[in-house]
Design goal:
2 helices; mainly alpha; two-stranded antiparallel ribbon; elongated; single chain; 66 residues
Length: 66
């Protein structure tokens, strides 16, 4: 697996995660973990982090390697 392929794969995975967080924010879905409800605002943090990592993956995939 080349670095470019790895970065594109990572960017795709993080894009899907960011999309999931965005959908949860839009629809206000509740998530329960061990009888504890996770606050919806947590998805805004998850969205920001996943979107940043997806952006970095795409940026690194575009760079030229020697």
């Amino acid at each position: 697996m080349t670095q470019r392929t790895f970065f594109l794969t990572a960017a795709a995975v993080f894009s899907l995660i960011a999309l999931g967080h965005a959908i949860r924010l839009l629809f206000g879905w509740h998530v329960t973990v061990e009888n504890m409800v996770v606050a919806v605002w947590i998805s805004s943090i998850g969205l920001a982090i996943a979107a940043y990592l997806a952006y970095e993956g795409l940026r690194l995939a575009r760079t030229k390697t020697k």
